Amino acid sequence: MSSSQPFEQSSPTAGGDATKRSKFTYRQLAHLALSSVTCPLRVIAHIDLDAFYAQCEMVRLGLPEDKPLAVQQWQSLIAVNYPARTFGISRMLTAKEARKLCPDAILQHVATWKEGDVKWAYHKDASANMATHKVSLDPYRLESRKILACMKGCLPPDLQRVEKAGIDEVFLDLSAQVHSILLEHYPELSSPPKDLSEFLPLPPTTVLDWKADALVDLDVSETEDDDPDWDDVAILLGSEIVRDVRAAVREQLKYTCSGGIAHNKMLSKLGSAHRKPNQQTVIRNRAIQQFLSDFKFTKIRNLGGKLGTQIVDTFETDTVSGLLEVPIERLKQKLGDETGSWVYQTIRGIDQSEVNSRTQIKSMLSAKSFRPSINTREQASRWLRIFVGDIYSRLVEEGVLENKRRPKTINLHFRHGGQTKSRQMPIPLGKTIDETILFDLASKLLGQIILEGNVWPCANLSLSVAGFEDGITGNMGIGGFLLKGDEAKAARENDYRPENGASDRPEKRQQTEHGARSIQGFFSKQPGTDESEKLEGSHGEIGEIGDWPFDEEDNITATHQIHAPQSGFKNASITSYFCKQCNETFESDNSFQSHNDWHFAKDLHDEDRRLSHTPQPRPKPGPGKKKNKGSKKDAAKSEKGQSKLSFG
Ligand code: CTP
Ligand code: CA
Ligand code: CA
């Protein structure tokens, strides 16, 4: 926090009538200290790095800031810096098209793992070798971590609440910190009356100094002459904090980012995207309606995907102002009670979802689509080595060596002829996970799939670990001796379990399942619990890659919502392809296919996540069936159910 006062001091009466009170009570002020989601004074910020991957490359290469640069993945562009954008270069162009627009632009290919290598590197020939290389986004993850640490370092340790919402963005709940600053600056606030429902005095200020912040215009009913109240002061203090955080990131790590400061997550996220790059936007409570009415609601967090499309189709409008006309009863009737109310509130700027600082990774996935397909076990094994290396390096960062966190299961998905075969097995406890263990398990899973026969050619292979648990730190070895029952058996035999007993996952089946999912499926949890955001919204509305344990191999365009693989795609013309979910057009069959694969893999991943988070009822022995403790075969059967239960 900078020491300068963000507002001009004046006497308590300067605003006019001294008997006038704030519209906020002492109780509400107290709630600010608790970061209560219902507190009307709440201050939330969203900070998003500008052209993130591109900036990472600029910083890594030590280039001058005005140098046009785009990050290339095969022939596509996945990030474009702002100088390059002035030449008309965008993510939608191919590298070749970008080169034409700006021959001087640097087109930096992402780092890749080369088939057979144990570490990723920046390879000069990567773009021409899609068949033998796999994209690594590790360099960006590492930078992301540094930036997060820097941001956290700027905030008081005991009052901070930081949610990493993607690889290049965070939400900050600044309420508690703002509360403490308020009390420091206005001692009169720290001696509350007995009756906490009494209204606060008005802030002793007339003019707030918003510095260089982009201020959103006030609602029609409000004027700048109206006296500011404590919510204005709180948001102003929040914007000061964000300015300092951004300055620290810039100074210490050279990155620019943009910020949004508002009353809740949804508004702050819209705010950070409002003016880019390197700016921050403040949306005061008195400006919310004005701000939102200009928006298409499909730009709002969680309204970008299928739900948004559904609403546009149902109510024949895509603007917030159009949808404001729809009475809540009709929204509920068409969208279901829960989603209807959620939409009703959201377009009115109401969002009580909390900033969730528990952002522990739940699974990690590494994958590769093969074009051309691969045909032998040896080829598949070579990729498994790379996947294992990729996952292992992320596990190490998660603290697997110290046994802080460890995954419980390992999964292999194998795509052949439009079908995906999946196998998973528990990762034996008792030993620190290393690459050899992971590779052995992965090879066993591969062996199981191959044994079925008729599996080649393989179009996509993905390996994931899931069911992360806090490990026992300090006495790793002991865990192995303490194992009982299932776990011990799993550890001894590396037993495996086909998922749900059904080994194949035809895409068709998936499509039907997803297609049939009700709209509430997208909001299976109450907005506010944040679990649904974790699941699908971590990519935000503009499709950024979240702290996505998911493979980024084909991440040319990330999605916003879970949806059926393929079903959302249409050919827009003979030569271009359109992804309805992402609202993006693909010029080449290849990039579209990659994109399609991405959706497919994400879907699998989401499904895995869903499986690992939905509590499964323990299968009860049916009538007349006795629990059989006898044969080994039966014991293995009962284990399946149990390992399912403990999964996730
Ligand atoms: N990204 C991607 N595919 C997408 C969206 C994002 O690979 N469809 C990657 C980009 O490379 C990007 C990072 O995720 O650098 C963050 O995405 P986002 O914040 O949406 O865009 P930026 O490139 O950071 O640009 P902006 O300045 O608009 O935030
Ligand atoms: Ca960004
Ligand atoms: Ca982002």
Automatic annotation (TrEMBL):
<dbReference type="InterPro" id="IPR013087">
    <property type="entry name" value="Znf_C2H2_type"/>
</dbReference>
<feature type="compositionally biased region" description="Basic and acidic residues">
    <location>
        <begin position="631"/>
        <end position="642"/>
    </location>
</feature>
<feature type="domain" description="C2H2-type">
    <location>
        <begin position="577"/>
        <end position="610"/>
    </location>
</feature>
<keyword id="KW-0862">Zinc</keyword>
<dbReference type="InterPro" id="IPR036775">
    <property type="entry name" value="DNA_pol_Y-fam_lit_finger_sf"/>
</dbReference>
<keyword id="KW-0539">Nucleus</keyword>
<dbReference type="GO" id="GO:0007064">
    <property type="term" value="P:mitotic sister chromatid cohesion"/>
</dbReference>
<feature type="region of interest" description="Disordered">
    <location>
        <begin position="603"/>
        <end position="648"/>
    </location>
</feature>
<dbReference type="GO" id="GO:0070987">
    <property type="term" value="P:error-free translesion synthesis"/>
</dbReference>
<dbReference type="InterPro" id="IPR001126">
    <property type="entry name" value="UmuC"/>
</dbReference>
<dbReference type="Pfam" id="PF18439">
    <property type="entry name" value="zf_UBZ"/>
</dbReference>
<dbReference type="InterPro" id="IPR017961">
    <property type="entry name" value="DNA_pol_Y-fam_little_finger"/>
</dbReference>
<dbReference type="InterPro" id="IPR041298">
    <property type="entry name" value="UBZ3"/>
</dbReference>
<dbReference type="GO" id="GO:0005634">
    <property type="term" value="C:nucleus"/>
</dbReference>
<keyword id="KW-0863">Zinc-finger</keyword>
<dbReference type="GO" id="GO:0005657">
    <property type="term" value="C:replication fork"/>
</dbReference>
<dbReference type="InterPro" id="IPR043502">
    <property type="entry name" value="DNA/RNA_pol_sf"/>
</dbReference>
<feature type="region of interest" description="Disordered">
    <location>
        <begin position="492"/>
        <end position="543"/>
    </location>
</feature>
<dbReference type="Pfam" id="PF21704">
    <property type="entry name" value="POLH-Rev1_HhH"/>
</dbReference>
<keyword id="KW-0479">Metal-binding</keyword>
<feature type="domain" description="UmuC">
    <location>
        <begin position="44"/>
        <end position="304"/>
    </location>
</feature>
<dbReference type="Pfam" id="PF00817">
    <property type="entry name" value="IMS"/>
</dbReference>
<dbReference type="Pfam" id="PF11799">
    <property type="entry name" value="IMS_C"/>
</dbReference>
<protein>
    <recommendedName>
        <fullName>DNA polymerase eta</fullName>
    </recommendedName>
</protein>
<keyword id="KW-0239">DNA-directed DNA polymerase</keyword>
<feature type="compositionally biased region" description="Basic and acidic residues">
    <location>
        <begin position="492"/>
        <end position="516"/>
    </location>
</feature>
<dbReference type="GO" id="GO:0003887">
    <property type="term" value="F:DNA-directed DNA polymerase activity"/>
</dbReference>
<dbReference type="GO" id="GO:0009314">
    <property type="term" value="P:response to radiation"/>
</dbReference>
<dbReference type="InterPro" id="IPR043128">
    <property type="entry name" value="Rev_trsase/Diguanyl_cyclase"/>
</dbReference>
<dbReference type="GO" id="GO:0008270">
    <property type="term" value="F:zinc ion binding"/>
</dbReference>
<feature type="domain" description="UBZ3-type">
    <location>
        <begin position="572"/>
        <end position="607"/>
    </location>
</feature>
<dbReference type="InterPro" id="IPR052230">
    <property type="entry name" value="DNA_polymerase_eta"/>
</dbReference>
<dbReference type="GO" id="GO:0035861">
    <property type="term" value="C:site of double-strand break"/>
</dbReference>
<keyword id="KW-0227">DNA damage</keyword>
<dbReference type="GO" id="GO:0042276">
    <property type="term" value="P:error-prone translesion synthesis"/>
</dbReference>
<keyword id="KW-0808">Transferase</keyword>
<dbReference type="GO" id="GO:0003684">
    <property type="term" value="F:damaged DNA binding"/>
</dbReference>
<dbReference type="GO" id="GO:0006281">
    <property type="term" value="P:DNA repair"/>
</dbReference>
<feature type="compositionally biased region" description="Basic and acidic residues">
    <location>
        <begin position="531"/>
        <end position="542"/>
    </location>
</feature>
<keyword id="KW-0234">DNA repair</keyword>
<keyword id="KW-0548">Nucleotidyltransferase</keyword>
